Amino acid sequence: MSKTFSVGGIHPDDSKFSRDYPIENFPIPKRVFISTNQHLGMPAVPVVKKGDTVKVGQLIAEPGGYVSAPIHASVSGTVSDVAPYPDFLGKKVLTVVIDTTGDQWEEGIERSPEIRHEIIATPEEIFKKISGSGIVGLGGASFPTHVKLTPLVGMKPEYLILNGAECEPYLTADYRLMIEHGQEVLIGGELMRRALGADVSGIIGIEENKPRAIELMRELTSKSLQWKVVPLRKRYPQGGEKQLIDAALGRRVASFALPISTGAIVQNVGTAYAVYEAVQKNKPLISKVLTVSSSDLSIQKNYRFRVGTPIADILSHAGAMDKDGNLSQQFAKVVNGGPMMGKPVSNLEAPVMKSTSGLLLFTEKETKRKEPGECIRCAKCFEACPMRLQPYLLYQLALAGRTQELEEHRVFDCIECGCCLYTCPAHLPLLDQIRLARNASLKNKRKK
Ligand code: SF4
Ligand code: SF4
């Protein structure tokens, strides 16, 4: 029987129009813009300078601290700049710009598609390889994977859960990865499981709207004593770490506690694939799969792109730009990520990053926000909140700037899933206000 999480959640139409479009290798871009801030924690520190020549897979920035990750060149060519450039939100970030020449790779990286099944690396070697390959959580959080796999004192992992829920509407990158590269995903998961400890159990959580992926991963794990597939009832935000642990194991992560306190570590299936490539092929994280999908159904793609490719290049190749290099008239908005948690792109020249999961195109009609009315105290937002928060109250407190009370009502537990916003019949900008207040509180805390 399929499982699901116990509190809140919503059932938006899954709109996975691109599910039957195989992954295409996106052409190597003429120029890449590789941000040094592609992970949670300290930005990476460039080790190359203007004029240097680099090969694919070469280290170009080293970790800026323990919670950080190295960054590698995704193309070969000449470093034409190391300077702040605006990201997709317009915020300036130190960036390494590389003008591409050819496609020359660092020695020792295996590029053949042959699958390397045999695991010979020790747990220490696996851990070291993950850390040195710049692997971060590819489900969106971008937390450095080696840090997440480091056991905390007194907390013993019992389960490694591979997150194949992909609960955000439209996105199909993880689905395509599972059905096209299920073996590699499983080997990557097994590598992480071994790094955590031989007695750790592996679980692959997949929503029921991906029956082919469930069937295939079940087939691949049928003879395994360590791994099992857990089908999940379709429900958003099932792919949230805390919700997935609840769904798969029936264990709840307490307020302010880390997921590992339940004995579980969650890693995205894309991360597992990256771990496979790093350990079995010696390939650092320089490419990733994303979905390009438009709500009017005219554009459906799943691309494997080189990190740092400009968003405009991807949209242009997919057919979403006009001949003058502007977004085609039929589209009013580009969203980076899924429609629930993604953010609008304000700078099309900005690059895609390690964790970019999708570029979604919406028409004018769909982007029009309805006029907000008065709260009618229906409590729908409360029922939908998977963190058992009171969004209507947090909204009022945020508007009034009552920081202390926001914290007392657990504003920091908000996972920014947008379920409250989705359900509110008064169309109140609940999440926008809560997010603003939460970020302001966080900033204040950091200053203290
Ligand atoms: S965005 Fe925050 S407050 Fe709203 S439903 Fe999600 S967790 Fe609850
Ligand atoms: S869903 Fe909207 S209208 Fe209903 S209680 Fe929450 S904020 Fe008020």
Textual characterization of the structure:
There is one protein chain. With 448 residues, the chain is α/β, with parallel strands linked by helices. It folds into three domains: 278 residues, 3-Layer(aba) Sandwich (Rossmann fold); 75 residues, OB fold (Dihydrolipoamide Acetyltransferase, E2P) (Beta Barrel), CATH 2.40.50; 68 residues, no CATH class. The protein contains 13 helices and 17 strands. Strands 1-14-13-17-15-16 form a six-stranded mixed β-sheet, sandwiched between helices. A four-stranded antiparallel β-sheet has the order 2-8-7-4, with no helix packed on it. α3 links the parallel β9 and β10. It is globular. Bound molecules: iron/sulfur cluster (2 copies). One iron/sulfur cluster (SF4) binds next to α12 and α13. The site of one iron/sulfur cluster has 15 residues, from α9 and α10.
List the uncertain runs: none
Query: Mind telling me which CATH architecture of the largest domain this is?
Result: 3-Layer(aba) Sandwich
Shape: globular
Number of strands: 17
